[in-house]
Amino acid sequence: VSFQVACLCIGDELLDGRLADTNSQRLASLLFDLGIGLGSTCIVVDSLDEISEAISHLAERFDIIVTSGGLGPTSDDLTAEGIALANAEDVSLNVEAWAHIKNRFAKRGLPLPDNNRRQAEVPKSSRIVLNEAGVAPAFVTQVGKAEVWSFPGVPSEFNYFLSEHLRPYIENKQQRGMTTQLFQGTIRCLGLTESSLAQRL
After folding, report:
1. How do 138-143 and 146-151 pair as beta strands?
2. What distances in angstroms separate CA 3 from CA 16, 39, 90, 118, one per listed residue?
3. Average pLDDT, stretch 78-92?
């Protein structure tokens, strides 16, 4: 089974120099281990229209889209709304996700701000994946032919969802058909220019 996979990273901080995108690199590494090449990665700002347009465009070309970021409790966290807009649906409160968030705060003895409710509001058609590494749940939404897997942007949480949920999902699908193995190697050279090395190769 061959998958076409893309990554969409969301956040102003990735485009104004505050943070580097390491999540798409981590996704690419995981996919390579599974014999899949990451077909595309792009970054957009925290904008409803930008997120929606990017999802719509990628959904025309890819089977799986992994989004990173925009699942926090603040007004600029717009991933759920952007995906819902691309899918022509509304967001709604997921009761299971909201209960999980409340439980996480209660266990830590912290007051629960009202705006954390936003983290349990996902596209109506989405399937929730609870976050055992943090607060914000992940969710999976069918947009056209593409499955959109939306993960928090915090690297430790993003990695948790990759290893504990996305990887087993892909491996399970691969067991039903032929898989591909990818290999890579590094040749270290000294004293050669790139152009002369290319001629020798």
Report:
1. antiparallel
2. 32, 9, 28, 32
3. 98
